[in-house]
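Researcher: For the record, we're logging two predictions in this thread. I'll number them. Prediction 1 follows.
Model: Prediction 1, sequence and structure:
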Amino acid sequence: QSLGEVIMGDKVQSSLYVFKALKNESCMLLSCSAGSDDLAKNNIDEFEKMINNGYRGHTSIDNLPVYNPGVPILDGRCTGIVPSEQTYPYQRGYALGVHKNCIGETLINNHLHFTIRYHTVVIEGKNMFRIVGLNAVPASVKHNNDGGDCDASLNPFAQQIQYLTTGDVRAGRKIWWSYGATWIEEPSITWAMRWDEYLSTSVADSNAKVHWEYIIVSLIITICMTFVASINLLRALHRDYNRYNSPDPDENQEEIGWKLVHADVFRPPVHAKTLSAVVGTGVQITLMVITIIFFALLGLLSPAARGMLLTAVILMYVLLSITSGYVCGKLLMMFEQKEWRAVFLCGTLFPGAIFGMYLFIDILNYHAGASDSVPFTKLLLLFFLWVGISIPLTVIGASFAFRQPAIEPSVKIGRLAREVPEQRVQHSVPFIWLLPPLAPLGCAMLELKFIYASVWQGMVYYVFGFLAIVFVVWCITAILTTLVVVYYMLCYENYHWWWSSLIIPGGMGLHLMAYSVYYYSTQTDINGFTGTLIYFTVMWTVSLMYGIVSGTLGFISSLAFARTIYSNIKLD
């Protein structure tokens, strides 16, 4: 098993289902071990709770996972309202049962009918068969006490049958687990195309028109924003340049606007070491995201390889630690605060927080008996990747930066700092930290919803083409939003733009965390203290990463912007 598989909890075990190639079966009984009846009866309350909470079973054949092909709950015969998160037909796995709101009682899906699609190929003169499709439709069947009705004549989808309820099991009814199989040849589906059906039926890819409409609207908004921001900034800067660089002493008799703070604009900020560490980490995460999306677009991160995506994320993050150290070192040199302690802060601040959060989640999973509880040996491997590889690469990157010349400010820094005048409400720090982050977040809201559904609701997400387009639009929006706000901050003589540029585009993840709270309350059915705590711990980590990445884009673009405009004015 790969590291990603272990972390995701994909522990593969052999099942009791036995199929004979190309042989259709209506009903066969599982050969359960002795004592399984007592086990089911003793745990029926917990099993009923899992059914009503939407738990699903998962199985696979030839590394192809089973999924529901679109059949509605109880074939559409529900008389009550089932929770919406359990009604989407195209989901991985199969429902363990039917929610009690459907017909008033909780049903147990003790029968599965598999549809196995295969493709015939000729290898060395022999016909060979490759499985190219797998789905399963669950059913609730109250078999006879001896299970004798499970034969070729039983078809729970074409005849009226009695349902097996949890109340029947409490009353002493034996659970007979049964299954059937239908083999269908698919000459048009090749081995390379066998994942297409899974991806095309995902909630994220069920309607490409939704993606394109949202992307087009976002592009129009971004283009308009780019045009308006560029025109306004260029006109304002052109007017400022003409006034500041004019040879006429009457026009240049007094410094006003952003030129007035030229001696303070590059003054090192408070907590410069922490800022350098955060920006270095942001560059590392940003490059990791770009690399992962690029590999996914090339088709190198196939969903057939379980855990490959998460494994690639971990490895790319570790290997890109050298960029984090380099950027952190360059900023420390620019701030004239060259210290190795700050480099170690860069290598430990964010990874340490992530490792601590993950260790906390793993303890909760272990206590709850979850399958994604990671063994101690894998935790040691993660710790080694961090301490043994990531931190040394961070130090190597910083050593390269320390050997290079420091980035010189475009204008000379004054000895005494100016006093920042009182700002209007619309230019105050709370205002510019709360409202501007809404613009970039709005551009990515649709894809975020699909990604959330993939992580928390068992949906399939593999539309990386749409994700790449949205990511580019999001980056442009974040940069433009930051530049506009920073420009007006300087115009109103507020030269404390360093930390503001980091917070303006993403709000350090607070806005995304607020959306996560909304999503939790409206879209998920997570019950219990442990599940809720794990959800918010994970989303706090994701929100922090979002804030760091967006803040890094804003910081770097603002630094380039400030260096550009101040290098083109004449100063006495």
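Researcher: Logged. Prediction 2.
Model: Prediction 2, sequence and structure:
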Amino acid sequence: IAAMADKRDLIAVEERPLKRSHLAGPVVWWVRNDLRLEDNPVARLAVGEAFADGRACAPVFVFDPRFIDVSPYGRVTDPDFKKSIKTRRPISFSARKTCALRARFWLQCVRALQKDLASQGSGLTVCLGKPEEVLSSLPSGSEVMCQAEPVSIEQTDVEDFVEEALKKSGGALRREWGAMSLYQRGDLPFRIKDQMPGSYSGLGTALGWKDIWTNTEQWEGATPVRAPVAAPAKFPDLPAGGLTLPGAIPEAVLADDAAALRHLGYSAEEIAHAMKAQLPAGGESAARAHFQTWLAEKADSDGGRAKMAASWDLPVSETADKDGHDALQWANLSQPDGWCNISHYLAVGCISAREMFSRASEHKNFTGVAHRLMWREFHRLNAIHWHRRIAWLQGPGRVERPWTTDPVIVAAWKQGKTGVPYIDACMRELHETGWLAYKGRKTAGFFLVFDLGVDWRVGAFHYEDELLDYDFAMNYGNWVTVAKVDKPRNWGESEVNPEEKHDEMRWKLSAEKTNDPTGAYIRKWVPELRSVEDRFIHTPWGMKEEDMATCGCTIGKDYPASIVGALDLNISNPSSDAHPFAAEREEAKGEAIA
């Protein structure tokens, strides 16, 4: 009898109409920094949900003015400082969050995705406005899916705002990890919040790499990097009649770079500067073609070790095998054009780290690719771990140090008018192209912090504005490292000595002098010095009156006098890979012992 009753109950349950757990409105793929179709789990999820439930699917991209306009340094999503700590100090500097040059590249990537979607019978609605205001106008019952960006507290705030707005309008937000990172969060063998390894080496060990600094060998049971997923083969229909959203950018405006930049609020001067620059092609196809070319030309090459005469200021100087091949390609980090030069595509999601990892895995220089992607992963996880502290003046290390924000000094650095040729070349290249190679970024940053004594956040905010490949985690992660505020000093470890750091700046500039003795890089970006003799190109303060007359460049008139005075970059043995000041450092040690 009991069995028969159980069977009747089961039949009753089976016949009872199921409550639909999904929303009735369209599925909306809120495109963010995942501007691609291949290896895009969020796009696949949105498409799958729409097909499964017979709903329409609408991709939407929103240019948020908070991340474009000029603003004081700080959390643009909290302009009244309601979420700030009580000890927050006043901020006296501001900048754009995105310069016109990067906005132009961004526009091209958005248009490329729009074209790719159109070829699949779908489309992309592009708007200007706060996402919470734009997306709250979606039809009731809309389900919005997006790739979360937990590395940025500001972007997380925006997600919170959108979630709250959608609840009020009868919709919902679904945040997904996506494929912005190399590893899937759920696969990590540690909790990011309270178990994050404290160093790059520690992260490699935790994930199962035998020696992340030198090779790609992994221990059995190492955390896997998931394989890329395919793009959706088919897209659902768009909502009948299309979407009518506030801030929708007219197609004619979006199709024209200059018109679109005006629409986004850039001045005529900013637009003119952006339009004269030669930009890399935007979009997923361009990113993949760029990487394919790199794989064909450099992924198996020995790459120019001989071109790097000095490697004193690189984290690893010598990782070549017995045949002379350096899979990590450190020599390329000493060159102005870098190595893969694909970071601008990674930053907006035109290609994923997982796809790069997978496609490079069979090539000779895979170790170098994995190494760089793992550094990116470290910074992303570290940004999530430290949250807002990564953008504090004291940094995650809570380091107190006197700083300046002197506008005259800051302007000289930003404009490339410090009177130190290599620094000026770096800052001018950054402004003109939105690009600066690894060593240039770190050396210019080091100079700002330790030779000029400027608040490191001024530099980080400037890079945020100017860099074509700006990425919150990479930018601020590298800046706190350069400024030595990334972690508390260990017991027994001395505090930062400005004088020692000033000496270190001389080593860095001496490395540049050794690697580029004729100053080709400087001559390219600092035209005032193009006729200066090779022996003075890195040290123009060494010229006498007759030298200046000969080259037609008077220091203090045609080119600024050094803002930090004359720097001694003497190199006794240019062919040596030893620090140029090794001897005097040893001598100083001896004096200290004596």
